[in-house]
Amino acid sequence: MKTKLSIIALAIASGLCSTAYAYEASVDQNGDANTANVTQTNERFGEGVSTAVVEQDGTANTATLNQTLTGGTQARISSTGTGNTATVNQFDVWHANADVSQNGLQNTANVNQNQAVSGMSFANGAEASVVQEGNSNNATINQLGTNTGYHWADGVSASIEQINGANDNTALVNQIDVSFRTTASITQDGEKGSYAETNQTGEDHVATISQVRGVENNAQIKQTGSLETASIYQAGATYFAKANVIQNGTQNIGNISQINWADYATATIVQDGTFNVANVTQDGNNSTPFSNYGLVSVSQNGDFNNADVLQFATRNSTAQVTQTGSNHIASVTQSDGSFLTAKVIQSDEFNTGTVVQSGEYNDATILQNGSLQVATITQSGFGTVAAHNVAITDQGGTNQLASITQSGGAGNFAKVYQR
Questions:
Q1: 14: how many CB neighbours lie within 10 A of its CB?
Q2: pTM for this structure?
Q3: What's the average model confidence in pLDDT over 229-248?
């Protein structure tokens, strides 16, 4: 059975300004290769509520809903089957709502809430939701939020859920241009699938999550403030990795990469302030399957701080960077080793701490309180579970320099105290 149905509702409001209009459209199709098109236009903005519903059951069906210049617009598409396509276009609307629900394989959902013509209205207060059950589905939400931060209706929200054992799915949320108080979330699960979520409140944020060839990976980005940038990349047969980026402030940057068998790796970046940068890379080097267990934590509270952490071909290693104040630099490199532990804790301003580790059972701690402190710890020895190699620098005041190098066997201890 193949049908094509088009509905065009052109509402030209005339007469008394107090007149209220409601425009409703409903389509129900059962079969294969069906097409449904619904277009609703209100030429006098705000003079009525447009509602459109399309339900399809079958294979290779296509549904398109177009709604322009209305307030409180509602659109819903529900489909069951294989190879179905659902598209919702809502242009120049206030408080629009779009819901797409698909159950089956190889389905595609697209929601666009933005301007029909550049320079016109925005999708103020728009909400979009896509729920897909099955494998090889694709979902995209594009939103252009308010153009006035003080407007009562500003802000857009987006949600994508790909659930119930879904594999090989794709989810994308775009919130572009001037979008105040935006929110976005992505959820993915399945035997080979991963979980991804983005939540954004504020303006002009950029969030990117990419999960490739992994199993049961977890990624979350949460941003508040303005002009924040965050990315999470999990790939290269990495299993059970977890990554979190949490940012509050202005123009902070947080990046996490977990790649090449970085199994059971966990990384967290928390930033609060302005112009902070944090980069974390956990690379299994395809040599530590199912036993990486790397743990990285970066916390920055202040302005213009920089932290870089690399774990390369390590097992059961931990790195922690904590920065409060401004203009600190911290670098931790752990490579080709096991049971390595590094801590860099900095406060006040303009301190620099560097840790480089390899080998086994090496522990390094840098403590800096004051300004213009510089500390470096290098460890390459092979400690034991009963006799770790330990290096500590503890600095307070101004313009101190400390350096510790350890190599060789086990049980070494060194501490530099400058206060």
A1: 10
A2: 0.77
A3: 90
